[in-house]
Design a protein that fits this description.
The chain has about 180 residues and is of the alpha/beta class. It contains 5 helices and 7 strands. The protein folds into 2 domains: about 30 residues; about 130 residues, Glutaredoxin.
């Protein structure tokens, strides 16, 4: 093998490493974090109507990622309904429930909504694209996960699990 050929292989290998490293950086930056602008998304709600995060520009948005079979999600749903949604909805707050991990089974999601008498908007994130945009792959992904987006579209709270006091405090802070 000639020296020239070795240098060509080395140059190709170096280019491949640079391209892959750049792709990894782009993929990492696609995940939202506290302090970042929330990624816009468009999903259908359980009634078949389109819903985009950008539809709520100028409002505080609480995003609740949940699964119908998840015990903590079942425990938090009525608390989000009464202690977040109903308490703050007349103050410019919107709650969006995004179902994940139910494989797009709309009947399961509708039964969950009915069981908990939810009046906030609920959508199905069947492919988990929105969920993945809000949760880093190197961290454990779990439900429930909650995010608060302020009036300027910035994520001010993002946490797996449900800490009612923390969510309510984040909503109050985002309203200021």
């Amino acid at each position: 093998m000639s020296v020239r050929r070795v240098w060509r292989y080395a140059a190709c290998l170096l280019i491949l490493v640079v391209v892959l490293a750049g792709a990894a950086l782009v993929q990492q930056s696609a995940v939202a974090a506290k302090g970042d602008k929330a990624p816009n998304f468009s999903l259908k709600d359980i009634n078949g109507k389109d819903c985009k995060l950008s539809d709520y520009k100028g409002k505080v948005v609480v995003i609740n990622f949940f699964a119908s079979w998840c015990p903590p999600c079942n425990a938090e749903a009525p608390r989000i309904e009464y202690n977040v949604w109903r308490e703050f909805k007349n103050k410019g707050v919107v709650v969006l429930g995004l179902n994940v991990w139910d494989k797009g089974d709309i009947e399961k999601v509708k039964n969950f909504v009915k069981k908990h008498k939810l009046t906030y908007r609920v959508m199905i994130d069947k492919d988990e694209k929105v969920f993945k945009a809000f949760t880093a792959p190197e961290q454990p992904r779990g439900v429930p996960t909650n995010a608060v987006v302020n009036k300027n579209g910035v994520i001010t709270y993002l946490q797996a699990g449900f800490d009612e006091k923390a969510v309510r405090a984040a909503v109050r802070d985002a309203l200021k």
